[in-house]
Amino acid sequence: MQPICIMKFGGNTLANKQKLLMAADLIKSRYTAGFIPVVVASANGNLTDVLLDHAFSITPTPDKRELDMLITTGERVSVALLSIALRAKGVPSVSLTGSQIGLITTCNHTGADILKLKGDRLLREIEAGNVPIVAGFQGIGENKEITTLKRGGSDVSAVFLAAQLGAGHVEMIKDVDGVYSADPNKDVKAQKYEILDFDEMYKLALNGASVLHPDAVCLAKEKGVEIRIVHYQTGQTGTVIK
Questions:
Q1: How far apart are CA 91 and CA 57, in angstroms?
Q2: Does the global pTM surpass 0.85?
Q3: What CATH number is attached to the domain comprising 127?
Q4: When you count CB atoms within 10 A of the terminal residue's CB, does the N or C end of the chain come out lower?
């Protein structure tokens, strides 16, 4: 079988039609290069925040189950639009929710933990020649209820799927070209790291580096999954975490 390439797209890289089409082009480039892309997508732009604002404008204490039902629609928008764009470019693809791929989590709403991947839906889609476009940040609890992970959990989804599918690395597609010693928009002396080890990246993430979720770094270290920070415009790797 061809090598699997896990590609995770952050919300800022899917924020509008132009960026979404660029994402589809990048996925297609991996596909035509002989890889099998498995894509994990976040909700586009600030859609999750918009949905949360709607809920909290109704009540300061919205029910957590209903919040999960609400905010998981954001990723469904992204994966459906990405699949539509890919099919228009001649790439067979299928959009899938966390529950459809069998991503089983704990039962606690708005902060569940991944337990296992149940079933073979992903492998069946790959064998059928489709590029799976998976909704990140969500799964299904052991009680069959829709759940979400912690904010930023799409990073965790991507690393988990990379480990489950035997991919050696995961590409985190970002609107930055790598990990820096400080915010390059605020500090002209900020230096970009070409290579970081997991412990160094974890410390940076805990100290506010928003490029990766700390839990994703821990999981990548545990599972031995290399993380590559890739710029959405160039498709080039800026920083490797291993």
A1: 41
A2: yes
A3: 3.40.1160.10
A4: N
